[in-house]
Design a protein that fits this description.
alpha/beta; 7-stranded parallel sheet; 13 strands; 17% strand; binds nicotinamide-adenine-dinucleotide; UXS-like
Length: 319
């Protein structure tokens, strides 16, 4: 890690808070900027007393000012779960467009490297499998998910334009489904939903027939990949995700087994434009960043379940 002073936008969210933690452990100073739309100060509470950590409440779509030098901007601000971005469609489009413009402006002003948190959702419902970075995607531009997918596609385009036109040192990381501690139990994503339901003894709600697949990456692996890209001068885009692919039904059953739950599986309606398959081709990340995921699914899920068990116990009303 060569960056000394790092801005993490969306730093009080799930991924952002893990990035802040890792950067501090590696000796960087961290400025965490967040408007707490889907994140919360609680995610970085344990970092607040540290001399090299600063939390700034700020909406990236408004005026953005950071005093002093900055070496690296990690732009992670954006609602990310379908429940969140469908609840905040305009805010999602605004942070992906205006927010990205401001974050790029900050990197340009400070002469900092800039890394955009893009997503596997830019591939939409992919017609190529697994997905390589050269694939252009299959996105419905007026479907409900487009507020997120198209915002990220625009953000990638804007990032590339700043590199070409303004010479900003940029990198684009396309993150595939990541999971781990500090996901919110009700954020609507499959893993927190299944884990919460299994722990509470409720039916595990699998959408459709459960044959649709996802590839899930433990948060520590994703963070390592993002920081490897940040430390390089590679523009990307580069996929970061775990190629181990499993069906949603298999995921639900694995979580049920690991929690020791007896919850039944309940099949519910599938969301509109929900992708059929998702698996990253990670050859580029291996070749350019020397990165590959190392945490296997069962180990990552066990750590996540242990965290959720503590979390749900603490927030459960005393009977
Ligand atoms: P999250 O919702 O936990 O975190 C996003 C953070 O951004 C929140 O703290 C939120 O309050 C903040 N934010 C939103 N709008 C903002 C604004 N206008 N100004 C300032 N802060 C704002 O989501 P996450 O899962 O941690 O995702 C973080 C980033 O990584 C997102 O950009 C997302 O698109 C990307 N990503 C995540 C995943 C994943 O599996 N978690 C996969 C692909 C991409």
């Amino acid at each position: 890690m060569t960056a000394r002073r790092v801005v993490v936008t969306g730093g009080a969210g799930f991924l952002g808070s893990h990035l802040c933690e890792r950067l501090l452990a590696e000796g960087a100073s961290v400025i965490c900027m967040d408007n707490f739309l889907t994140g919360s100060p609680g995610n970085v509470e344990h970092l607040l007393g540290r001399p090299r950590f600063r939390l700034i409440e700020c909406d990236l779509t408004g005026y953005v000012h950071v005093p002093g030098p900055v070496d690296l901007v990690l732009h992670f601000a954006s609602a990310a779960s379908p429940v969140d971005y469908l609840r905040h469609p305009i805010a999602t489009l605004k942070v992906g467009s205006i927010g990205t413009l401001h974050a790029l402006g900050l990197a340009r002003e400070k002469g900092a490297r800039f890394v955009l948190a893009s997503t596997s959702e830019v591939y939409g419902d992919p017609l190529e499998h697994p997905q390589r970075e050269t694939y252009w995607g299959n996105v419905n531009p007026v479907g409900p998910r487009s507020v997120y997918d198209e915002a990220k596609r625009f953000a990638e385009s804007l990032t590339t334009a700043y590199r070409v036109s303004h010479g900003v040192d940029t990198g684009i990381v396309r993150i595939f489904n990541t999971y781990g501690p500090r996901m919110r139990p009700y954020d609507g994503r499959a893993i927190p939903t299944f884990v919460r339901q299994a722990i509470n003894g409720e039916p595990l709600t699998v959408t459709g027939t459960g044959t649709q697949t996802r590839s899930i990456c433990y948060v520590d692996d994703t963070v390592r990949g993002v920081l490897a890209l940040a430390a390089s001068d590679f523009p990307g885009p580069v996929n970061i995700g775990n190629p181990a692919e499993l069906s949603m039904l298999a995921l639900a059953m694995t979580i049920r087994e690991l929690t020791g739950s007896r919850s039944p599986i309940a099949f519910v309606d599938r969301p509109v434009d929900d992708p059929e398959v998702r698996r990253p081709d990670t050859a580029l990340a291996a070749a350019r960043l020397g990165w590959q995921p190392v945490v296997d699914v069962a180990a990552g899920l066990r750590r996540t379940i242990a965290w959720f068990e503590r979390e749900l116990l603490e927030t459960r009303p005393a009977s």
